[in-house]
Amino acid sequence: MIAYFDCFSGISGDMTLGAFIDIGVPVKWLKETISAMPLKGFDLTVKEVVRNGISAKSVDVSVAGELPSRNYSKIKSVIENSTLSDNAKNISLTIFEKIAGAEATIHKCEKENVHFHEVGAIDSIVDIVGTALCVEYLGITKFMASKIPFGKGFVKCQHGLLPVPAPATLAILKDVPVYGTDIEQELVTPTGAAIITTLTEEFGTIPGMVIEKIGYGAGKNENTTIPNLLRIMIGEGRAALNDTIDIVETCIDDMNPEIFGYLMDRLFDDGALDVYWIPIFMKKNRPGTMIQVVCSKNKKEKIIHRILTETSTLGVRYYGAQRYMLERDYIEKETSYGLIPIKRVKESDGSFRLVPEYEVCKKIALEKNIPIKVVYEKILNECSGK
Q1: Where do the domains of the chain lie?
Q2: What would the DSSP string read from start to end of 51-108?
């Protein structure tokens, strides 16, 4: 299942939660699940609103009594000690860590001690944990988003007036495609920025997909020239030509070959989708190596920086490319080696193909001291019922 975030008017935590609820996540289930955490005294209400003729869900979180003092360390403890699934915990913690990390850098303090309204408020905890629960409820496995718009002007916060986008928002959205508008309003909050960068793998146009459901989440500001809404579409992915990637490449004939292994590891750490070493002959018939890296557009600058700083090259080339993609996800299968993750690929004819993961098979082979090909064969035979 694919989700596409159409952020034509920005993104915030309540807009995200509202859009998911509009798609069909039950409000009662959300409230009950979040209430099972050590988080009491809040109420989640949802109402139907209309913005520029478009019906949407507006989410409000009310709190009874005074808000307790919370920093990142305390929020982390609340989530870790909850009964949430591991996946919901991981998504929630990653989102909060992005916000806390940005604030720690800006204010020059320890991340664990970051304390500010946007993180400490119960409504942000509800928005973030609620978003993680919605992702799980809807079974979404891949996320894509449009480029992110910025407003202009100033926003009032705990530290006084800050320029829009707020420093934390700007820090979180580093390496993400953005564009400016003439709207004098904060279109993207730190929570919204952390949600979109945690979930989304690619930023660009709508991917090849069969849209099944559409949800609209409303922001609180109604005085905008465009509807203050976030639109989320979910559906099944299909192979499509509009999945655009970047290819970064360079040719080298004067570098210590021992560096190539290290470089490949770092490129994958930087978000490369694939890395190739291609033998070539260069000028004066010298043997060389073409480094070719496939990456998403928002990772291109980081990949280029890595190649320029870690190799002897004087420059790189880059260009866009389009690719067909078969839909894939991960499932868990019970085998004689225990419960293991398996990649499930959906073929063009609708049939499925199971592909054991190399790292999983490698670990089993080393632990059992058996050939890795035996592990592959046994897993495939057991999962296919042979």
Answers
A1: 2-237, 243-323, 328-383
A2: ETTEEEEEEEEEESSPPPP--HHHHHHHHHTSS--HHHHHHHHHHHHHHHHHHHHHHT
